[in-house]
Amino acid sequence: xxxxxxxxxxxxxxxxxxxxxxxxxxxxxxxxxxxxxxxxxxxxxxxxxxxxxxxxxxxxxxxxxxxxxxxxxxxxxxxxxxxxxxxxxxxxxxxxxxxxxxxxxxxxxxxxxxxxxxxxxxxxxxxxxxxxxxxxxxxxxxxxxxxxxxxxxxxxxxxxxxxxxxxxxxxxxxxxxxxxxxxxxxxxxxxxxxxxxxxxxxxxxxxxxxxxxxxxxxxxxxxxxxxxxxxxxxxxxxxxxxxxxxxxxxxxxxxxxxxxxxxxxxxxxxxxxxxxxxxxxxxxxxxxxxxxxxxxxxxxxxxxxxxxxxxxxxxxxxxxxxxxxxxxxxxxxxxxxxxxxxxxxxxxxxxxxxxxxxxxxxxxxxxxxxxxxxxxxxxxxxxxxxxxxxxxxxxxxxxxxxxxxxxxxxxxxxxxxxxxxxxxxxxxxxxxxxxxxxxxxxxxxxx
Length: 447
Known about the structure:
It is built from 17 helices and no strands. It is an all-alpha fold. The longest helix has 37 residues, at 47-83.
């Protein structure tokens, strides 16, 4: 499939971007349901149960970081190779990706067994919370291979321009999770009452189902990318090429885990309720940023393909269209969080203190949503060009370098509100840096 036949090289940009973005937008929204639905049901048990699931989030996000990081590397490599009519390299990348995913799966079994307790103990001295967080984490981390292999296959589909199949797969997995959550948490209709353990099992069942269907779809599909171990030779050059993007991309996704850990420790000095509120916010914000991530997923192969094909004007058009669509989504998110914080928090059975803290958090943090458009989209644009380090720098400013020190300083001035205020400050600095860096990079690309 050469650049004159592939729609990524010929169709009008905005309709093409939307057709490639809407399915992953829906898919990412559905994916965000896993944690949010778990939290909504678990909150019915107790605030301690909600806090326990919130403490497990960094470990879950680490799984996602490794899976999506490798997936982004595969996506960029495969799309560029297809744009350059090099199917052999595209197939080699996919086969290497499968082997690396298997290695990652084994790694997380070890992480789940040996790292869960020492990690969680850093953030709570409450034995009940610690016990529930451990039981939840052991299951979702040690059995993460379903999610890892599903995301691996999903990224191959997306690299070839097929965004519908990943959406369908995510939808099925989320439905299974939503249905099984109340059955296993509360012991309905003859199922055992397992509490937070039931929430973890429901999540894994959804992921396993999605993985099995992904394998079936891939085997039966007519995708231009093939996986074969026949005459396969492990290539250090290919691994380096994949991880050159995968490592920075994975770090970008893992940064929230580090950030949550740092801020949980800071917020814990105020109250466990503040920790619970932050956990709720981090799940809620996925409903805003996951659709934007969907736009970026649609943009990546589009920019990579046209960059590989030498169609730089179309590459620029894809970027501008992505900024516009993402900006609209983030402004809507800002309005919703600012106007309706009370009903949003009440979904999690928030009582007086949690309701007050949650309302302040949603209104303050969401103030930075709109300006974050530039940081999020331009970081994705650098990944499309194979420049993972530049993408990492932008995300480091957004999610790591600015927030912890500013949060610590402002917390001594404004209390908990100072922690929330650090988020829009970081987004503003990242936006300015991203615009300047991308402008300089684009000028160096030969027209």
